[in-house]
Amino acid sequence: MKLFGLADCNNFYCSCERVFRPNLMNKPVIVLSNNDGCVVARSEESKRLGIKMGIPFYQIRDTVEKDGVAVFSSNYNLYGDMSRRVMSLLSSFFPKIDVYSIDEAFIDLSEVEDMEYLLDISHKAVRSIYKGIGIPISLGIAPTKTLAKMASVFAKKHKGYKGVCVIDTDEKRMKALKMFPVGDVWGIGRKHSKKLEYNNIKTAWDLTQKSERWVRQEMSITGLRTWKELQGECCIENENVTYKKSICTSRSFPAQGLNRIEDVEEAVANFAAMCSKKLREQNTVCQSIIVFAYTNRFRDDTPHNYIHDIINLEVPTNDIKEIVSKAVKALKRNWNTSKTCSYYYKKAGVIACNITAATAVQGSLFDDIDREKQSVLSKIVDDINNRNGRDTVRVAIQGYNDSWQIKNEYISKQYTTNINDILVVKA
Asked: Could you tell me if residue 343 is inside a domain?
């Protein structure tokens, strides 16, 4: 029998901050996006205050001050390390895990036949992760991944489940479907959600009552797959959760922007390095790279310009030196050299495109790069950076200039990745 689990860290970013600030337990906490722009994570207490996901920070400053909301800038070094710890401990209880995102992992439980044992080990995993790492998790178990994700939501919302909700009978499935808003179903996007609402389909149960023909016509093959999953028919295996087809790393620059090529190329070098790292993490390579930079189109008092260049690679790669070098050369090639006009670039980025599995690369007879040596070097650099913190070893052109760095006024310390930020317990 097919059986899946979905482990979901509760309010993950906020929970990570609370681990090292226990005084914030049961108090409202929010985490802001890059450049402290808008809210990307909320504790339950913040949700009850009416703080919406994605709301610009400046719109809720009064609420933050009045209700004593703790505010943090995004600290992805911390969140990434805490995620690795959670997944590592989770895998000690369940060998077959498939990390889906920074705070979620699917678990293949098909070989477990004893439901009583499964429930017991699941509760132990939830308790151990909270006790050992400080991160509360919710575990949903069901015959399909879509239902498992639904079950994890119930596990989070209702304390009676003690962190684990199991949907293992048709009776439980139908009850869950009738209680679950259709717009919250995994795989139902904003476009389909509006269409379903227009057709008076409000719950997951309402959707399952539609005919297969109607779903196929109105929601395409993806919607049909979700419909079948809600019926208890497994359609999403592990191999269906694939790598990203493109990877973009970009950032808006502070103040009016950057007008020195040295600053912009350093930023682009760092964006390219991040793309190469993400490629290696999912064991993929890219065939082409896009480099872009543009001025603030909303300002009329400064001249406008747009840089956009595509670099096609002879051999697909994920090597940091090669990708950074190509990206920087593209920027220089498109940079305005006129002394009479200085553009202030507000945003820049790098996109890795035409991504394929690293194992499916066909080499070139005319390739003069030692790919095997390149791969070994990249692995060594990644290992060093994973142990000692991101960019401990970096390409020289990445530099250490902070003129392009994001605004992070409320950033917390690197408690787990920087030895200088380790908490000291006083007797």
From this structure: yes
